[in-house]
Amino acid sequence: MLHTLGLLLGCQLLGEITARGFGVAIPGPVLGLALLVVLLRIFPALAEQLRSTTTVILAHLSFLFVPAGVGVIGNFEVLLDDGLALLAILTLSTVLSMLATVGTFLGVRYLIEGRTT
């Protein structure tokens, strides 16, 4: 389990180093996840080694949301003061994200169907 956690955290660390070192606008954990995907494509047997540890992590994923909940309660006065504006921003950003996802899906589908026919 320690080797697996070391690999996961190492990928995240390399992603952070890359993002901060080169000033990339992509978050470090996202770059680390991309690195992990590349490693899994290169070494398919690695997926089976990661499975037991990642299953345990995913089973207890809800614990990772506790600090976020504490942060919200700790800044409750911000919610009281700017709650309506935050709700509007969250709603708008969610709708825009969904539209961007649909647009990307339709664009990729158009490109794929255009190539196969």
Q: Can you tell me about this structure?
A:
- The chain is mainly α and 117 residues long.
- It has helices at 2-22, 28-42, 45-59, 66-74, 76-116.
- The protein is 86% helix and 0% strand.
- The N and C termini lie far apart (48 Å).
Overview features:
117 residues, mainly alpha, 5 helices
Q: What's the helix and strand layout?
A:
Layout (H helix, E strand, L loop, with lengths): L1 H21 L5 H15 L2 H15 L6 H9 L1 H41 L1
Number of strands: 0
* Oligomeric grouping of the chains: single chain
Radius of gyration: 20 Å
Number of helices: 5
Sequence stretches where pLDDT stays below 50 over 5 or more residues = none
Q: Calculate the terminal CA-CA distance, rounded to whole Å.
A: 48 Å
Helix content: over 70%
Mean pLDDT figure? 90
Indicate the structural class: mainly alpha
Question: Beta-sheet strand percentage?
Answer: under 5%
Secondary-structure element sequence? HHHHH
**Mass-distribution shape:** extended
Biggest sheet: strands, sense, closure?
none
Structurally, the number of domains stands at 2
State the gist of this model:
With 117 residues, this protein is mostly helical.
